Amino acid sequence: AIINYVRRNYGSLIGEATAERIKHEIGSAYPGDEVREIEVRGRNLAEGVPRGFTLNSNEILEALQEPLTGIVSAVMVALEQCPPE
């Protein structure tokens, strides 16, 4: 999700290791009081050269919304199928 977000919004390509680092350092499932930032380097897709940019925790929250919604839905379905005891 983070890789796709960066590609869509920054026109840059990052690897899985970079996406994991972003998720661990500033990722969150809920908006916080403090907006955290991280400097990232990726390959600009239009020019093919390295490019640096800054991502913030609100952007990562937006990027993670779809997968998080899917997880919550799956948990709710599983709980609905559990017997009451």
TrEMBL record:
<dbReference type="InterPro" id="IPR056546">
    <property type="entry name" value="MreB_MamK-like"/>
</dbReference>
<dbReference type="Pfam" id="PF06723">
    <property type="entry name" value="MreB_Mbl"/>
</dbReference>
<keyword id="KW-0963">Cytoplasm</keyword>
<protein>
    <submittedName>
        <fullName>Rod shape-determining protein</fullName>
    </submittedName>
</protein>
<dbReference type="GO" id="GO:0005524">
    <property type="term" value="F:ATP binding"/>
</dbReference>
<keyword id="KW-0547">Nucleotide-binding</keyword>
<dbReference type="InterPro" id="IPR043129">
    <property type="entry name" value="ATPase_NBD"/>
</dbReference>
<dbReference type="GO" id="GO:0005737">
    <property type="term" value="C:cytoplasm"/>
</dbReference>
<keyword id="KW-0067">ATP-binding</keyword>
